[in-house]
Amino acid sequence: MAGTFSQIYIQYVFAVKGRENLLLKPWRDEVFKYMAGIIKGKNQKPIIVNGVADHVHIFVGLKPAMSISDLVRDIKNNSSNFINEQKFIKGKFSWQEGYGAFSYAHSQIENVYQYIANQEEHHRKKTFKEEYLDFLEKFEIEYNEKYLFEWMD
After folding, report:
1. Domain containing 18 — which CATH number?
2. 2 or 136: which carries more pLDDT confidence?
3. Model's pTM, two decimal places?
C-alpha cells in the first residue's frame, strides 16, 4: 500500500482585533506555547510561533489532510478562549477576522524561522502594515486595501 508524502510549509499571520497591543510580554510566550500545542493536537508540525503585542506569525509543516483555513480557525478560536479563561486581559480578547497564509519551500525553512524568531527586532524598523503589504507584494497576491486588517498608524 502506497503512503502519502508531502512537504507543505505555511506561515500564518494574523492580528489582535482592533490591532490593540494586548499580547503582553509577561504571558505572551505562554500563549505561543499553547498555540503550538493546538497545532500538535491537530497532528501538524509547529515549527515556530512568535509575534509582538498586536500580531502573530505561525510557521507550520502542514499535512495535506488538514486545510489551511481549518487550522487557523482552530488556532484562533482555541487561543482566544485560552486568553479569556486565563483572564490575561480585562474584557474580552479576540483576533481580527482574516489572516495571511504564505507557502515556502523546504530550503527556506531556516530563513523563515529566523525572521519569525526576530519579530521584536524587526518591528523596531517596520510597522505591521509595511510588513504585511510587503508579504502580499512579495507573493504577488492581488488585494483591495479595504479588505485588509484594521491598520493603526
Report:
1. 3.30.70.1290
2. 136
3. 0.91
